[in-house]
Specification:
The protein is α/β, with parallel strands linked by helices. Helix content is about 50%, strand content about 20%.
């Protein structure tokens, strides 16, 4: 059975799809957000256009990218105009972009804002880079169109305010293709001259497209690199260009630039005359003050009677001499007193003196010890005599010396009562001198002696 089903090869199917797509969508506008941007070494930009639910690959070839004034970047919402093409080798289709415009903001305005932000980040607008304009420039360079109203206004004002200026005009185109390159070259040429003091970059008013040459990055960097201070005077007062931000001074109009660069000669002359008058008055006032000072000094006594200060000094010397002598005497006495005191102190600290003092102290202690021992012996002797006297008064011998006797038993016991003995008992009677051995003949209980 023969196979009736149509069978296509991949190449045939891809060619058919390519034919249909490219015929159906020869050119169209597509709105979307740029993502996955990649710029190849060839200069072609590959990216994806996407919205909330779909995406499509796109390519912007290098020869088309020259028409795009702004920088293509991820996240940018754009309108892309182009045609669909099928890349058969990968089986992909992509949008080949011919034109690219930012959504909402104009392309030129977006390019202006992007370049302004980038140069500001590099510090080209920093106030610290701004240079002062010379006050009286003698040689001025002008970059502008030789046929425009700007150069006529500048020449008119410069001629009116200050004659005999050396002006060097670099004629350039100030709008259109190639204008930026001519401005850059003109700035380089004027810097090459070497003795210019200021450069005016000027152009009359116009639309953003007309003034675009002064928003080119090359012009901005040429102004920033200029060794001569640059005054930017582009457009009207309400027009701002990148050149205005980079220049050392911005003038609202070309005429204002001429007025900023050159002061009016009559005003300068009037200012000089005013300064001359003030200088003369100041010098006269200073001369008057110095003359009055000299006259005042001439009237002082030191000049009218030169010997008086000498006499005053002599009198003062006469007053001070006695005080000096008295002071020297008192000082000498104090020195001698201190010397004696120190000498005495030193002598008292010598070994011989200390030994002599020690020996003297020992002799004093010896005398005090001897005296103490003597007093102690005398006192002991006196107490001993008193004790002997007391003992002697209490001794039985002293009673015996007064005529009394002492009777004792053979055992030595003193007989104090008749009941201690009995008749015939031997007793011993002690007298003052000698003893009596007796026998008791009778014992009487009653004592017949007179009781006292």
């Amino acid at each position: 059975m023969s196979d009736q089903r149509p069978v296509w090869t991949v190449s045939e199917l891809t060619a058919r799809i390519k034919e249909l797509l490219e015929e159906r969508f020869p050119a169209c506008w597509v709105e979307g957000e740029i993502s996955n941007l990649r710029v190849a070494a060839s200069g072609h930009a590959y990216f994806t256009l996407k919205d909330e639910s779909a995406q499509i690959k796109a390519v912007l070839f290098r020869n088309r990218s020259r028409r795009v004034r702004f920088e293509v970047e991820d996240g940018l919402h754009v309108l892309a105009f182009g045609s669909l093409e099928v890349y058969a080798a990968r089986g992909e289709y992509q949008l080949v972009v011919e034109l690219l415009e930012p959504k909402g903001l104009g392309a030129l305005q977006l390019a202006f804002e992007q370049l302004k932000a980038r140069l500001a980040a590099e510090g080209l607008f920093a106030p610290a880079r701004k240079r002062q304009l010379p006050r009286f420039p003698r040689k001025i360079g002008i970059v502008t169109s030789p046929t425009g109203a700007a150069v006529r206004d500048i020449l008119k004002i410069l001629g009116r305010r200050f004659a005999d200026l050396h002006l060097l005009i670099a004629p350039v185109r100030v709008q259109g293709e190639g204008a930026a390159g001519e401005i850059v070259q003109a700035l380089a040429d004027l810097n090459y001259v070497g003795d210019l003091e200021v450069i005016i970059v000027a152009r009359g008013g116009g639309s953003l497209e007309d003034l675009w040459a002064f928003n080119e990055e090359a012009v901005a960097r040429a102004i920033a690199a200029s060794k001569v201070p640059v005054v930017s005077a582009v457009g009207h007062e309400t027009d701002f260009t990148i050149a205005d931000f980079v220049a050392d001074v911005r003038a609202p109009t070309p005429s204002a630039a001429a007025e900023l660069v050159v002061e009016e000669k009559a005003a300068v002359v009037a200012q000089l005359l005013d300064l001359r008058g003030r200088l003369i008055r100041s010098v006269r006032q200073r001369l008057d003050r110095h003359r009055a000072g000299v006259e005042g000094l001439a009237r002082r006594r030191v000049l009218t009677d030169p010997a008086r200060p000498l006499r005053d000094r002599q009198r003062r010397v006469d007053e001070l001499v006695p005080r000096l002598v008295a002071g020297l005497g008192a000082c000498g006495r104090r020195v001698r007193q201190r010397f004696l005191l120190v000498t005495t102190t030193l002598r008292s600290q010598t070994p011989l003196t200390r030994v002599a003092d020690g020996a003297r102290f020992l002799r004093q202690l010896d005398g005090r010890l001897r005296l103490g021992v003597r007093h102690s012996v005398e006192s002991s002797r006196h107490r001993l005599g008193s004790a002997v006297g007391q003992l002697d008064s209490l001794s039985p011998l002293s009673v015996l010396r007064r005529g009394y006797s002492l009777t004792r038993l053979p055992s030595g016991e003193i007989v104090r009562s008749g009941r201690q003995v009995e008749r015939g008992s031997p007793i011993e009677v002690l007298l003052r001198e000698g003893t009596l051995d007796c026998l008791v003949q009778e014992v009487r209980e009653r004592d017949d002696r007179l009781q006292v």
